[in-house]
Automatic annotation (TrEMBL):
<keyword id="KW-0408">Iron</keyword>
<dbReference type="Pfam" id="PF12831">
    <property type="entry name" value="FAD_oxidored"/>
</dbReference>
<keyword id="KW-0479">Metal-binding</keyword>
<dbReference type="InterPro" id="IPR039650">
    <property type="entry name" value="HdrA-like"/>
</dbReference>
<keyword id="KW-0004">4Fe-4S</keyword>
<protein>
    <submittedName>
        <fullName>FAD-dependent oxidoreductase</fullName>
    </submittedName>
</protein>
<dbReference type="InterPro" id="IPR036188">
    <property type="entry name" value="FAD/NAD-bd_sf"/>
</dbReference>
<keyword id="KW-0411">Iron-sulfur</keyword>
<keyword id="KW-0560">Oxidoreductase</keyword>
Length: 300
């Protein structure tokens, strides 16, 4: 295996995949480093089964994302995955995702581009000075690995690498973390309405004496290939991504999910026999810190 790469991309989610593909297309040698055993980021790790932002919101959507994002959609479509946008009650258009097919599609895109993938690999330290990274020290199941790099793209989603090399540039940004779940065994034709979800929230709070962060009951999106619902209904506070706080938040979110599922069974028509098919597999963390950049790019 090579020990020097022109570009190291850390994080194999949507941003990391796009950055790695673009760098490879420019003729650079690229290594793509990912903690998990698959790519996809929140779509596969946190159960967020949609891509948002490809189209403007409202009744007359316009495509605003192309490039590498469009390449992923085209690869999904060639693999037999539907990519037609679905309108949500919020007015946003989303593209629903089957995580298992997405994993395979991203594998193929990465390998066909000549990118070196490193799964089950985590950056634990950086070497460099004056804010420039010269090498990454990575941990993997057999020990440690040192990679010399020309440039690094931090696509971790939470400025993990930036915090190592330039901690003075990091500022906190507190947001709730979300546990997404997939709910199955719902009677056909019984989409939950707001009135029924409001009743579920009241039932949950009465039984548990706890406040539900999503007071509207959450969002439930039917998945056309399975008949199940992808649900965003559980938010928990997360101070930072220290193992102590993460552990507490993960355990709390799972407990809430099961308690709230019981309220859905009690109050929502068609959900009497509903089951929690899967959660996560980890909390969706929007961000707990941001980088104070040298230049902010904005478009009016």
């Amino acid at each position: 295996m090579k020990r020097f790469y022109d570009v190291a991309v850390v994080g194999g989610g949507a941003a990391g995949i796009a950055a790695a593909l673009a760098a490879a297309e420019c003729g650079r040698s690229v290594v793509l480093i990912e903690d998990y055993g698959f790519f996809g980021g929140t779509a596969t790790i946190s159960g967020v089964q949609s891509y948002c932002g490809f189209l403007t919101s409202g009744p007359h959507p316009e495509r605003v994302v192309a490039g590498m994002g469009l390449r992923v959609l085209e690869a999904l479509q060639a693999f037999g995955h539907p990519v037609e946008p679905v309108l949500q009650s919020s007015g946003n258009w989303i593209i629903l995702l089957d995580p298992e097919r997405l994993k395979v599609v991203l594998d193929r895109l990465v390998l066909n581009a000549g990118i070196t993938p490193l799964l089950h690999c985590r950056v634990i330290a950086t070497e460099g000075q004056n804010g420039h990274i010269d090498a990454l020290l990575c941990s993997h199941p057999e020990g440690h690995l040192r990679l010399e790099v020309g440039s690094v793209v931090d696509a971790t989603g939470n400025a993990n690498v930036a915090a190592m090399i330039a901690p003075h540039s990091i500022r906190p940004r507190l947001q709730a973390a979300t546990l997404t779940v997939r709910i199955g065994n719902v009677a056909p034709g019984h989409a939950p309405d707001r009135e029924a979800l409001h009743a579920a929230v009241i039932d949950y709070q009465r039984r548990t004496q706890r406040h539900l962060a999503r007071s509207n009951g959450g969002y439930f999106v039917p998945l056309p290939w399975s008949g199940s619902y992808w649900a965003m209904m559980i938010d928990v506070d997360l101070v930072n991504t220290d193992a102590h706080y993460l552990t507490r938040a993960e355990i709390e979110a799972r407990s809430i999910a099961h308690d709230y599922l019981e309220s859905l069974r009690r109050t929502v028509p068609g959900f009497e026999q509903a089951i929690l098919e899967t959660s996560g597999p980890q909390l969706g963390i929007r961000s707990t810190r941001c980088v104070t950049s040298l230049l902010v790019l904005m478009e009016n």
